[in-house]
């Protein structure tokens, strides 16, 4: 384990203040300096522990922690060698990381199942159509223009939401967006090719046709995406 500079600072200050004893003109001033410095060093160690371990879920047993400090400072034989102590700390960190990974995986599995359940129920609603890929859509307004191909550039207005109703992106309030269908998620590419210019559709995009297990920015992993999309033009 790489040692923090704080421990080197503690060592230097301890040697300095320890070496100053008996050399000061004012014993009371020296005692105050030692007292204040000692408290400050304790604060520094506490802040280091909080920032590096407590925030990661590793909360030291205060009694054992203080015992370790006392045994080390007094020169008493410690329970572990330095290498063994590093190993014990690393084992604690690894256990916390494994627990967090397990919790994250459980959360993602719940999110994935929630999306699946949503699409199953949504697909039963009147007006909802489901393609062979699993993409769902409903026609809000049917246009009369041409339909884009997979290699076309399109101009659209859109708003994207999660199934809990949270809006994560929107072009409304600004200029329409232009992009090639080859450069967007599979659900968009498929959905836009179903639309004629002038149409407005609501797309329900399964996670496997969206951002999948990786998510993207404000979009959590395995999210079903809901997009209201207006196809304004096919850009030549």
Helix % is: 40-55%
> What's the architecture of the largest domain in CATH terms?
Roll
What would you call the shape? elongated
Secondary-structure-based class equals alpha+beta
Radius of gyration: 31 Å
Q: What would you call the quaternary organization?
A: single chain
What portion of residues belong to β-strands? Answer: 15-25%
Please give the CATH class of the largest domain: Alpha Beta
Largest sheet: 7 strands, antiparallel
What is the count of β-strands?
7
Tally of contiguous helical segments: 5
Distance between the termini: 59 Å
Low-confidence stretches: 11-24
Mean pLDDT: 83
Instruction: Please give the domain count.
Output: 2
Query: Helices and strands, in N-to-C order?
Result: HHHHEEEEEHEE
Briefly characterize the structure.
Helix content is 44%, strand content 18%.
Question: What report would you give on this structure?
Answer:
This protein has helices at 5-20, 27-52, 62-74, 82-122, 186-193, and strands spanning 129-130, 136-141, 153-162, 167-170, 177-180, 200-205, 225-235. By secondary structure, the protein is α+β, with helices and mostly antiparallel strands. It folds into two domains: 5-79, no CATH class; 127-235, Roll (Chitinase A, domain 3), CATH 3.10.50. Strands 1, 2, 3, 4, 5, 6 and 7 form a seven-stranded antiparallel β-sheet that branches. Helix 1 (5-20) packs antiparallel against helix 2 (27-52). The longest helix is centred in the middle third of the chain and has 41 residues, at 82-122. It is elongated and about 85 Å long. The two termini are 59 Å apart. The model is unreliable at 11-24 (pLDDT under 50).
């Amino acid at each position: 384990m790489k040692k923090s500079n704080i421990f080197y600072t503690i060592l230097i200050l301890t040697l300095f203040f320890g070496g100053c004893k008996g050399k000061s003109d004012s014993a009371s001033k020296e005692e105050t300096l030692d007292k204040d410095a000692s408290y400050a060093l304790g604060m520094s160690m506490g802040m280091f522990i909080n920032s590096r371990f407590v925030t990661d879920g590793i909360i030291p047993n205060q009694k054992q922690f203080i015992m370790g400090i006392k045994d080390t400072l007094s020169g008493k034989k410690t329970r572990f060698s330095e290498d063994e102590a590093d190993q014990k700390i690393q084992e604690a960190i690894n256990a916390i990381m494994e627990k967090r990974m397990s919790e994250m995986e459980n959360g993602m599995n719940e999110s994935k199942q929630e999306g699946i359940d949503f699409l199953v129920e949504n697909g039963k609603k009147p007006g909802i159509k489901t393609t062979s890929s699993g993409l769902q859509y409903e026609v809000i307004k049917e246009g009369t223009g041409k339909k884009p191909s997979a290699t076309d550039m399109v101009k659209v207005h859109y708003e994207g939401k999660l199934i809990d109703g949270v809006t994560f992106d929107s072009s409304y309030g600004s200029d329409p967006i232009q992009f090639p269908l080859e450069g967007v998620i599979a659900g968009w590419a498929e959905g836009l090719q179903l639309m004629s210019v002038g149409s407005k559709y609501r797309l329900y995009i399964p996670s496997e046709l969206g951002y999948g297990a990786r998510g993207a920015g404000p979009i959590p992993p395995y999210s079903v995406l809901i997009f209201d999309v207006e196809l304004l033009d096919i850009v030549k």
